[in-house]
Structures are given as structure tokens and as C-alpha cells.
Amino acid sequence: MSNMINDALPLSLLLLLPSIASSLLQPISLRTTAVLEDQTPAAVQKFLASPGNWPKIVTSSVGVESDGADVEQPLPVGQTVDEIFGLPPVLPLAVRWTCTKSVLASSGSTDGKKRTPGFWGIPANRPPLSSGGRLEFSSADGLENVARNCRMNFDVQRQGGNNGEQNTKLVLDMSYEPVSPLAVLAVPVLTVDNAIAIKFLLPAALRTQSELDKFRALMGSLYLVAGLAHLADCLAGGSQLLTFAGCPSFYELPLVGQLLALLWCA
């Protein structure tokens, strides 16, 4: 029985060889779609356009590096970034991506077309509240000895929700030309990796980023209120905070001390 299984395995591999060989002669394209609830196209595009965020959502990505660009900011058109895969430094793999197109998601209509007046003077053919954006990244060299002419395109479109919230439809189109059987065999892995990235890890990362931005805004507001309260206390409130700390009142301080107290308010 075991001999029959051993004989069948090489035979099955031989049957796959024509399919793999034919796949090496044509590009491979993968499409993944997701709807991100309560996220604006502009927020989604800004996150994806910043290469420093890629390792947060791509399980196979180890990190990104760039000599001339800030990877924590949206990558300008023409700039390049190296995305690191594998197990560096033992097995370092890298793809050098170039941003070839970045059409920002924007609010309202930017096409300059005149709208036909409708009922009560409201344009009958009003555009959506926000238009979508598009990001395109390419790598002619691709992954050495594995794939070339790699492309990674994102379409970011507004999609209304059931309760009036603004959702975003995201379409990821990835393509490459295989130069090794490994690039063909990797298709199922890449399909799962892309699905995990934009259907699960991206929404989680966006929620975390939103919560972090809210926390920063809250702390900024609290520091502003505290600074204004301290300024009012120094100038018209008897310098309660200073005297509680064992210091003279504001007007009893030397000039340098008063300047430091005012700097503290800022």
C-alpha cells in the first residue's frame, strides 16, 4: 500500500508540471475586496499610502526601508521603498516598490462640471459626498529569481452605510509575472495573506489609529486647558500653584522666573 502511495505522489507532481509551465508564461492576477465600516476613503488611503503601516497588516512583511522618503507618511509619486520579507538576516527577501500613481480621495466634486439645477435649486445630479482615490505601486525587478513586473493597486471608493455612516469599499489588485514555479505555487498563500490583510488586520489597525488620534486630541485639549488655567492663576489668581509648590508668587519672581513660568503655561 505504501509503495502505491509513493508511486502516486511523483505521478501527481508530473501531472501538475504542464499547468505550472503554462502559468510561467502568463501574468498572475489576484483581486481582493473588502468593505470597511465607518471609515472614510481619505483615512483608508492615507493609511495604505504610508509604507510604514504595511507590516502592521501584511503577515509576510517584516519591515520597510527607504533612503529618501519618510515611510510614516504617504509615499510621493516617484519615490521608492524596500519592503522586507523572509527571515532577515538569515533569509533576506526584498521588493523595491515605486509609487507610480496617487489620486487622493477628496470631498465633493472636483471635475469642474456644471450641475443641472433641480428642485429648490439643488443640483439634480449631485456627485457623492466624497470621491474615491487610487494608489498604484510597481516593481519591475520584483522578487529576485521568483517574480518580476509586480504591481499593487488600490481602489478606494466611498460606500454609504445603512444608518448614514460613511463606509469605504477597498479593492486590491495584485499582479506579477512568475519566473519560478515557486511564484505559481505561492498563489493560494498570497490569496489568504491579502484577504487577512484587508478584511481583518486593516480594519483593526484603522480602529486603533482612530482611537490613538482621539486620545492625542483629548490630551492636547487637557494640556491647553491646564496651560490657560495656570496662566490665569499666575496673572490674576494669586499664583496658587506656584505658592503651593513653595515658590514666590508670580509678581515676586525675578524676570527670568516669570519667563519660565509663562513658558510652563505654553
How would you describe this protein?
It is built from 7 helices and 9 strands. The protein is elongated. With 266 residues, it is an alpha+beta fold. The protein starts with a helix and ends with a helix. The chain has helices at residues 2-23, 41-49, 54-57, 181-185, 187-236, 240-244, 255-265, and strands at residues 28-36, 63-65, 80-87, 91-103, 106-107, 130-131, 133-139, 147-160, 166-178. A hairpin with a 3-residue loop joins strand 3 and strand 4. It has a 7-stranded antiparallel beta sheet with strand order 1-9-8-7-4-3-2. Strands 5-6 form a two-stranded antiparallel sheet. 40% of the residues lie in helices and 27% in strands.
- Unreliable stretches (pLDDT < 50, length at least 5) are 4-9, 107-130
Morphology: elongated
Question: Beta-strand percentage?
Answer: 25-35%
In whole angstroms, how far apart are the ends?
82 Å
- Strand tally is 9
Which class of secondary structure composition applies to the elements? alpha+beta
Largest sheet: 7 strands, antiparallel
Average pLDDT value? 77
Order of helices and strands: HEHHEEEEEEEEHHHH
Main sheet strand line-up: 1-9-8-7-4-3-2
User: What is the helix tally?
Assistant: 7
Using the CA coordinates, give the radius of gyration: 28 Å
Determine the fraction of residues in helical runs and give it as a percent range.
25-40%
